[in-house]
Amino acid sequence: MADTAKAPRRPRAETPRGFRDYFGAEVTERKAMLDRIAEVYHRYGFDPLETSAVETVESLGKFLPDVDRPNEGVFAWQEDDTGSGADWLALRYDLTAPLARVAAQYRNDLPTPYRRYAMGPVWRNEKPGPGRFRQFYQCDADTVGSASVAADAEICAMLADALEAVGIERGDYVVKVNNRKVLNGVMEVAGVLDPLDPERFSAERGIVLRAIDKLDRLGVEGVRALLGEGRKDESGDFTKGAGLSGEQADVIMQFVGANAAVDDALLAASRSVNAHSKNLSLDLRTASWLNDSNFSFLPRSKTDGDLRNDFTVSYLRNLVAESSIGKEGVGELEVISDLLRAQGYESDRISIDPSVVRGLGYYTGPVFEAELTFEILDEKGRKRQFGSVAGGGRYDDLVKRFTGQTVPGTGVSIGVDRLLAALRAKGRAGEAAVGPVVVTVMDRDRMADYMSMVGALRQADIDPNDPSKGKIRAELYLGNPKNFGNQLKYADKRNSPVAVIQGADEAARGVVILKDLILGAKIAAGASLEEWKSRPAQVEVPLADLVAATRAMLA
Amino acid sequence: MADTAKAPRRPRAETPRGFRDYFGAEVTERKAMLDRIAEVYHRYGFDPLETSAVETVESLGKFLPDVDRPNEGVFAWQEDDTGSGADWLALRYDLTAPLARVAAQYRNDLPTPYRRYAMGPVWRNEKPGPGRFRQFYQCDADTVGSASVAADAEICAMLADALEAVGIERGDYVVKVNNRKVLNGVMEVAGVLDPLDPERFSAERGIVLRAIDKLDRLGVEGVRALLGEGRKDESGDFTKGAGLSGEQADVIMQFVGANAAVDDALLAASRSVNAHSKNLSLDLRTASWLNDSNFSFLPRSKTDGDLRNDFTVSYLRNLVAESSIGKEGVGELEVISDLLRAQGYESDRISIDPSVVRGLGYYTGPVFEAELTFEILDEKGRKRQFGSVAGGGRYDDLVKRFTGQTVPGTGVSIGVDRLLAALRAKGRAGEAAVGPVVVTVMDRDRMADYMSMVGALRQADIDPNDPSKGKIRAELYLGNPKNFGNQLKYADKRNSPVAVIQGADEAARGVVILKDLILGAKIAAGASLEEWKSRPAQVEVPLADLVAATRAMLA
């Protein structure tokens, strides 16, 4: 017989490809971190905004319904009620596109400027890979409707405060600030940007940008080769260069070498100061090393002890002296540095840094990147700096697509998963999540007694002198109580600190046994039989002392 | 010419139909409420679980990919990479289906029982309507893998604690508990359920259930008519009844009348007690009103003062005496009541209540519903009880679809939006969200000075004696500073309590002006010109006193 009727197939219990679940401490650690960040954002006057996860594809913008299924990079579907004219909907792929929609939709109701923060999942319809998920958290703060460079400075200060609030110590991070306009100025001076014909030389600029971005990997010589004729790598493959003349390449290389030049100048300055006096105060205009022409634009005496940003500004101003857009950009960086200094943020925390190139193509003015400077071991056990955990900058056409009106904006996005990984690497997240006290069940006819114990524990403060520490976390064993060993295994799996035990004998005597599971585990792990016996990790106390004795064991 | 080329159309800046955005306090109030609920769940030993928003349609279950677009009630789409065999994905429509998937997927790793809570948005592809959204929050707690009725009791206690934790006072809520098995017992006794042929009489049972659910609207007579031949409503339309005999209908009506009978019995009991002695202690077996046969099963003397649950259990036990499933159900209710009493939860908080019918078709054992008992005014200005804010119960085939193995579960879901509405109605949410202090800009060349002021405010505790109150919320005005009136309008829109002002004159004298905007608004709203002048809501203080004076104004 050809009866091919199948048995009903059971569905697979599987997270969809590229998605994941978060359990217990994975949820609470992220939440604790985001709560602390939100507290900082709130203090800076930013208001929370929670848009829906779903937007029209039209409003998301980047992806247009000109194909049958427009889910290039997004998860999209068509509304099924109104035929072919029905809207296409999609899950948001970031928190900026919804902000643009909100800024346009509510433009008559929102304050101007509008400061908002947003935290939540976004979705990308991409090929999943190791550590690459199709749903992940973003945490953004933006100021919409302010052209003032003070808005950019504020974002940088807030980012530094947020990093410290979650537990990244001063010295372990630096917020680097660059400016798209400075790069444009450098390109102009190098002759690969014509303000009257911005499209010209765009291929060359692309090669230059990519070369600059490879400084870490290729070194100065490698970058220089890519600016000229090109470069042959170890495998013998040849990468065509931008074809710049030696003079043109010099300009770019001066930009690439800015940080190193500033380092040298700072060293010279400190030597000069030390040579002349013990007084660290310094008039920049008279210092001898200022004969170096790169720093001849240093404008005036500033406060002590934090010259790096001033030096960098001066160096960049000299470099782009022939470009008006470049000078504008340097001026903005100087104002940002001054505004931040007025609030106490020096270059150890927020540093003007021309090496920040990533994202320069997207933004229109200042760009920021927060880097963690401490070292971790990578997958191969090599030391490396932790690296970037946040980035942002100024963009000036947020709502123009909707209203035709240009509205300036600036903002930052924190990489939630990366920052959380950093906190874990520093031991600042999830300090050994302790499970609940477990009240075991010796006698299933006395469930009411056990329930009363667990209730009493839960109503009790962990520390009666400090109610802010919360109440005791406790649960009753609700599995099959027959096998007592299973109950202790369960308590172990729950990472429980204390097991409460009361059999018929204890009940008759009005006592209860408390087993210190953390101490017990320590003893079991490393103790001889004698030690194990001499320190039985359990006590018997009167039932009336249940709460007090549990508190003592938790302390 | 037939040139019909259109100008590029701008996208509409609109939230998709049925979706909404949440601003400011709408976000923080909900978050504060969920944080308090999570604290209670955590204390009960429940662990957080956050699944992805996206599931395979196969795993969600209810909706199968047997049509081209299987989005009946869900938002679904097909993976676009592997042709016709590609998975259909969908947004979760509740938090229970993902729990079922997780319980099956991780069954070897999770503790048994597994207590988890989950909070987050869910999505329904339904026709949106007023107050009906296609994305909304759910807040669930479930215990998977315990058949013990103690798990149900625990959920009820936790629900009561959670309601109190968010600010619903004792007396303003009641958690009602019923049991599907009791209803089955009543049906059996009434002759509309045959344990040997459960499908028989299912049409009649449907009519009976719907009739019971209409008690509030139709009254006793209306329900009784629907149990028999049927009923003509005011419009003259006839609804066919279940066709029960008088005796059969009597059984159902005894069930429907359970609460009223218990009320009467409680009244009689209190009269009897008062007549015999001032002592409220009462031996139920000897009380004279127990001649009423409905209460003849009252088993033993219990603690004082809370007889309602005992009376209800006794009444129901009498009613279903001829049904074994019914007796089992009553027994479960009695155990729940006893376990809760052992923890101090009496019927004023958690009440055995046969009137809870909603959801009985879905659950397999105990069912719970939390009702808020205070009155609010409805849209038409009429008083009505606030009503249900949470519901749940026991279901026993959570993971069977995946593994073939029956795993018992019980849980509750809080209606987040409804509970938040209740808190607002009681004035327990969002106590007048105060905006940030606004530092205004009189002189745009002195932005660094203003930035330094706003920085100093933000670093200062609101109350130096109590750092737990947090730091001062403050922002710098970042719009165009030209028109000072606009700055004050902005501060007003931000609900700012204090505006800080320093023009060139004040700067020269080293002072700053603080404007009390809340007092100012009060004065402006209701004051005569004389009053207005006599209480100018602003002070001038030395710059060094900025923080102290702002603190004083905020206090």
From TrEMBL, chains A, B:
A Pfam family: HGTP_anticodon
Q: Which reaction does it catalyse?
A: tRNA(His) + L-histidine + ATP = L-histidyl-tRNA(His) + AMP + diphosphate + H(+)
**Is the Cytoplasm keyword given for this protein?**
yes
Q: Which Gene3D superfamilies match?
A: Anticodon-binding domain, Bira Bifunctional Protein, Domain 2
Q: Binding of L-histidine: at which residues? A: 94-96, 124, 138, 142, 358, 362-363
Q: What is its EC number?
A: 6.1.1.21
A molecular function (GO) term: ATP binding
BP GO terms, sorted: histidyl-tRNA aminoacylation
The Aminoacyl-transfer RNA synthetases class-II family profile domain extends over 1-436
What is the recorded name of this protein? Answer: Histidine--tRNA ligase
The UniProt keyword set, sorted, is: Aminoacyl-tRNA synthetase, ATP-binding, Cytoplasm, Ligase, Nucleotide-binding, Protein biosynthesis
Keyword Transmembrane helix assigned to the entry: answer is no
